[in-house]
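Lab notebook: predicted structure, single chain.

Context: the supervisor wants predicted structures on file for every construct in the current expression panel, including those that have not yet been purified. This is the next one on the list. No modifications to the sequence; it matches the entry in the shared construct table.
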Amino acid sequence: MQQRLRATLLALGAIALWATLAPVGVRLSHLPSFLTAGCALLIGSLVALPWSGFQWRLAIVPGKTLALGIYGLFGYHFLLFLAFRTAPAVQANLVNYLWPLLIVVLAPLFHKASRLHWRQVFAALAGLAGAVLVMTNGQAIATDFNLGYLAALASAFIWATYSLMAQRIAPFHTAAIGYFGFVSGILSLLCHFALETPVSLSWNDAGLLTWMGLGPLGLAFYLWDAALKNGNAQHIGLLSFLTPLGSTLLLLIDRQEALTSLVAWAGVLIVGGALLGRPQKGLEAANDPHFEIKSNHA
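Prediction complete. Output recorded below exactly as produced.
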């Protein structure tokens, strides 16, 4: 019970930080996407210093583990930004937010202890419906096919499978996430110089990038990794639908706009789905010895 609660709190911490990404991203929207991601990921890699600064060996991981980290952090952001460049932002973001649903549905393929029950499916669909409501504001969206949607779908698949595979590979210390972020940040900056027009940064830009790096593209990854190592992936996936809800609420606060009934209903769907999809006693993936071994390395 304590392990499940710890995993839930860690996941909620990551989700709370990710919720700040939208309002900060809006204020940095004038900057090239890969420049923003590259700077933030490099700054985020510094969060690992308290662990690896004095025990550098904690961040050393096998090549397969490093490849998985780059696959998750860089692959996800590369495809997501590509989707935003080639498809309408709202639709691309909707497709991207299939990743919590994919975590729930794909978990049994990665973990023998996981089972897909009707409660999880219904809960995931409720969470997805809430996410769609809050991101579209209840408005109809264009359904014309766009190749950018494939990039968004691929980004969702990458983050879901990265999250699930991180539980299967050889145990690694959470400090290694900083290594993943550092390499991914360098690759993002290389994409910036190859694909985007360089720009100069203001002091305000630097401050917002610092927060983005330390928070949603930094500490959030460490909390997410620790949550997955200690908890039930399906339940954590359902909690992830809180991210677009939190983002919308923060955007409303930032713009000094009133909370709408639609956002409230979206919150009911998302929170209700997360509660419905809670793992039952005896079915928790966290009881798998594989999770217990890895939790000692978080």
